[in-house]
Amino acid sequence: MQRRFRLTRATDFQRVRRSGKSYAHPLVVLVVGRSEHPLPRVGLVVGRSLGNAVQRNRAKRRLRAAMLPFLPVLAPGHDFILIGRAGLLTASFPEIQQALQTLLRRAHLLPPEENDLAAD
Question: What does the pLDDT read at residue 81?
Fold first, then answer.
């Protein structure tokens, strides 16, 4: 994921967590907040409860990769925080993509004509 699509500042994370709306799934939690930035930005949070540093970094890499196909079709002006849950470590990559698609649809951020991005 290119740097321009990443949420990096602690103040941005705090703003999204404080004023955003969250959507839960057994694999990941999505928090969506409004932004004045023209591109959608994504921040990742994977806590120590998921495992050691190797496992946490692997979970973050998989979340980033699963989010990539959705970036071009997401509505601009939103910041996203993805919070990894324990099931993320054992889930297959298509399951992670399906979870993200489900959460984005629940948040009404994917256009209705997009049938199934996870299958691409």
Answer: 93
**Cα-Cα end-to-end distance for the chain:** 17
Give which of 55, 114, 103 is closest to 81, Cα–Cα.
103
38 burial (CB, 10 Å; 0-12 / 13-18 / 19+) is exposed
Q: What pLDDT score does 104 carry? A: 92
H helices present in 1-119, as ranges: 10-19, 53-67, 93-106
Can you tell me the distance from the alpha carbon of 28 to that of 100, in angstroms, rounded to the nearest whole number? 8
Q: Which amino acid is at 91?
A: A
Instruction: Please report the sign of the dihedral spanned by the C-alpha atoms of residue 27, residue 17, residue 32, residue 4.
Output: negative
Supply 61's token pair.
């890499």
Q: d(Cα 78, Cα 67) in Å, to the nearest integer? A: 14
Q: What are the average pLDDT values for consecutive 10-residue runs of the chain, which has 120 residues? A: 77 86 94 88 91 94 92 87 92 95 90 56
Four-point Cα dihedral 101, 107, 108, 110, nearest 10: -30
